[in-house]
Amino acid sequence: MSRENPMTVRSAPDRLLSVLSAFDHDHPALSLTDISRRAGLSLTTAHRLVGALSEWGALERDAAGTYHVGLRLWEVAALAPRGLALRQIALPYLEDLYEATHENVQMAVRDGDEVVYIEWISGRSAVGVHIRVGARWPLHATGVGLALLAYSDAASQEAYCAQPLAVFTPHTITDPATLRRVLAEVRRSGVAVSSRQVTEDALSVAAPVRNADGSVIAAVSVVVPERDAQVPALIPAVRLAARGISRALGWQPEPDKQPTRATR
Fold first, then answer.
1. Do residues 137 and 116 make contact, with C-beta atoms less than 8 angstroms apart?
2. CB burial class (10 A; 0-12, 13-18, 19+) of residue 252?
3. With CB atoms 3.0 to 4.6 Å apart as the test, which of 23, 58, 120, 149 could cross-link to 53 if both were Cys?
4. What are the C-alpha distances in Å from 169 to residues 165, 180, 195, 238?
5. pTM above 0.85, yes or no
6. Could you give all domains of the chain from N- to C-terminal order, each with its CATH number?
7. Given pLDDT bands bounded at 50, 70 and 90, which one contains residue 141?
């Protein structure tokens, strides 16, 4: 049974948050004992806090006696301004991208060294990676992550490249020099292509989404089976969706520079 360190004073909000933080995508259902252990709380304290959270609707208990995140908490989380505003504005463009490709379409934002998926539209393709809204992946292993990392500042990129890079398949980028070259190519071309990095059968094509001041705040991608990928055909469709969302957010691309004509 977990015991709290008597020398450590934890506030009530901190303990409540530790209970909620016990849940993640790898641990969506937990027993009271599991919650106590993962939150670092005594069983008595965990029982009291879980009871309060369940009464409010943040947690729900199933017939087996295990706890899950409750719908009330999902309702509150959905109000997060960054994700909510982006989803509302982006959805028509994401739906158009789906209609153009009939493939899996997704949108993600950056949170630290990870991407967080804020929208996912399932296509006809059966690829090995199954993403839920709210799921997280390392930046270097996904198309959306590469698009977001490529347009971050140089110091942020170097800090990311300097740390150990998680491996998911033999094709996952693990060499910092290779990652730097990939990021440079993303900036040059304006799109990111990630092939077989998370699973052996998936390829994604991603493009950045900009806000009114031109900052990259999100990325859009299409995920397809690698064996059937028609990358040249996917790139313009993904670019079009990303540019449409960016314009809806107030971004105005710089006009193409025309050669000046000499006056007589």
1. no
2. exposed
3. 58
4. 12, 19, 10, 25
5. no
6. 12-74 (1.10.10.10), 81-248 (3.30.450.40)
7. very high
* Joined tokens for residue 95: 């739906």
Catalogue the E-assigned strands of the chain: 59-61, 67-69, 104-111, 114-121, 136-138, 192-195, 202-210, 216-225
> Could you tell me which residues are beta bridge partners of residue 223?
104, 204
Per-residue DSSP letter, 31: -
Q: In what order do the strands lie in the sheet with 216-225?
A: 136-138, 114-121, 104-111, 216-225, 202-210, 192-195
DSSP characters over 166-196: P-SSTTS---HHHHHHHHHHHHHHS-EEEES
pLDDT tens profile 156-199? 999 999 999 999 999 999 999 999 999 999 999 999 999 888 88
